[in-house]
Write a structure and sequence with these properties.
alpha/beta, Rossmann fold, 6 helices, 9 strands, about 30% strand, binds S-adenosylmethionine
């Protein structure tokens, strides 16, 4: 998607993807991942997800990367604090109590920004991207993550190519990430796509960087 698409969504507050509750898959399956105590968790395309608060409560440092400065600002504002942004190179950085949010294009971030990442949580990141960008995303993860780093990925499967959110079925997840990652399908459940009655399956994967 073009940057403008997302900036407009945030400006107009059309953020149906945002969840007020902590994601149940995250709570159920995060303990399946292997990481060091307190590992820094990368949350790509993080929006203002409250899941980052849950990860922080588990003792992690959190590194969220998000295109929209509105999202990064509002994440902290909704916790009752206004955190000033510091400009670093081409992006904005806000930090408070172990949560760092970078207002940046994930694909433009330099290597150093990924330093120390020990785990990844992807909810509505891969599925927010059109096909060619999904390939770039998987390549970027393979380039930037150290061997042994694991990712919890929540994907969606439904009929049709329209999006976002896009349907990314298991064969595509494997095609994108293997062999750089081993891919384990952990669980799935039927849900309903918002604003329509299309049957949608949410699928949770554990990815292990080889
Ligand atoms: C579907 S939303 C999901 C947000 C969050 N993961 C959640 O669960 O609420 C996708 C987010 O990715 C952001 N985004 C899109 N392209 C991006 C990029 N190239 N780099 C960083 N963020 C991006 C959008 O602004 C949007 O907030």
């Amino acid at each position: 998607m073009e940057h403008d698409f997302w900036h407009q969504r945030w400006q107009e507050n059309r953020i149906g993807f945002h969840q007020e509750a902590i994601n149940p898959w995250l709570q159920q399956y995060w303990s399946k991942l292997r990481f060091e105590t307190g590992a820094r968790v990368l949350v790509p395309l993080c929006g203002k997800s409250k899941d980052m608060l849950w990860l922080r409560e588990q003792g992690h440092e959190v590194l969220g990367v998000e295109l929209s400065d509105i999202a990064c600002r509002d994440f902290f504002h909704e916790q009752g604090v206004d955190v000033a942004a510091v400009t670093v190179d081409t992006y904005h950085r806000r930090e408070r109590d172990g949560i760092v949010l970078l207002t940046a294009d994930l694909f433009e971030l330099p290597w150093e920004a990924f330093r120390g990442v020990g785990a990844v949580y992807d909810r509505a990141a891969l599925i927010a991207l059109p096909p060619a960008m999904r390939r770039r995303y998987a390549e970027r993860m393979a380039q930037r993550l150290a061997p042994g780093v694991e990712m919890l990925l929540v994907s969606l499967e439904f009929g049709g190519d329209a999006g976002p959110p896009f349907s990314v079925p298991e064969n595509e997840v494997r095609e994108l990430f293997e062999p750089a990652f081993t891919v384990i399908r952990l669980a799935d459940a039927e849900t309903t796509k918002s604003q329509s009655d299309v049957a949608v399956r949410e699928v949770v994967y554990l990815l292990h960087r080889q």
